[in-house]
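Reopening: C-alpha cells for the magnesium ion complex, inputs below.
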Amino acid sequence: MAKQPTPILSARGVRKTYVFGAIPVEVLRGADLDVSQGEWVAVLGSSGSGKSTLLHLMGGLDKPDRDGGTIRFQGTEVATTHGARLDLYRNREIGFVFQFYHLLPELNVLENAMLPAMVGHWFAQFSGRAVAARASASALLESFGLGHRLHHRPAQLSGGERQRVAIARALANSPRVLLADEPTGNLDVKTGEGILDLLSERHARGLTVVMVTHDPAVAARADRIVKLTDGRVEDEPPTASKPLKDNE
Ligand SMILES: Nc1ncnc2c1ncn2[C@@H]1O[C@H](COP(=O)(O)OP(=O)(O)OP(=O)(O)O)[C@@H](O)[C@H]1O
Ligand SMILES: [Mg+2]
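Re-run output (same inputs, fresh job):
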C-alpha cells in the first residue's frame, strides 16, 4: 500500500482581491490546495480564473488579503513572512517559471540561468561558487537543447527557447518545489512534450511540481489534476488521478 505522503506546501482558505479603480474584484475566494512532498499537481482553470494569482501567492511573490487564509511551506507560514526569510524561501525552496518568462534582457542565456545561484552572493563572482553555478547552469541548458545558445540574449531567442531558459533558471538552485505557470504554453506539441519529459525526470528524482495549464493533455502528465472555479479549487474526479509511488 502507498505510504501517506507528507504535505510540503499548503494553501488554506486563500482570498485575494484586486481593486480596479473603485471596484474590488475577488479573484480567490477561499482557495485550498495541499501539495504533498514529491507530488505533481496540475491546476486547470479558465483564463482569468486566478491560476497565476494562486501560484504567485504560493511562491511568496504576492500576499493574500488581510486575514485571507494561510500559505504554509513545511508548516511555516509564508504569507506573513518578510525580508530575508522570504527571500530565502523564494530563492532556495521554490523555483518559479513565470507565464511570460521574465528573463533579464541585458543578460545572456547562461547568465540568466545562473542568476538564482548568484543572488544573495554578491561576492560570488570572485568565488568558486560562480564556477560551480556556471558549470551546472551550462549542463542544465545543454540538457534543454540550448547548448548552442548560451551567449545569446533573450531577444534573440524564439518563445520556446525563452521558456526553456526560464525553466532552467527555475531549476538552477535545485529547489524543493517547482511552481510552473503554463510551462509549455508557448511551445509546439513536440517541444512541449520534451519539456514535460524533463520535468518528469526531475519529478521522478523527488521534485514537487505545481503546474498551471489550460491544456488537459498537459495536465494529464501530473499525478493529480485540480480545477480552479469561482475562486476556489475543486477536485477533479478520482479517475483523473494516478496513485503516488511508494517512495513519495
Ligand atoms: N496585479 C493585478 N491587478 C489587478 N488585477 C489583476 C492583477 N493580476 C491579476 N488580476 C486580475 O485577476 C484575475 C485573475 O488573473 P490571473 O492572472 O491569476 O488569471 P489566470 O487564471 O492565470 O489567467 P490566464 O489563464 O489568462 O493566465 C484576472 O481578472 C486579472 O485581470
Ligand atoms: Mg495566468
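The chain is about 30% helix and 25% strand. The pocket of magnesium ion (ligand 2) is lined by residues 51-52, 99, 181 (CB under 6 Å). Marking as resolved unless the reporter disagrees.
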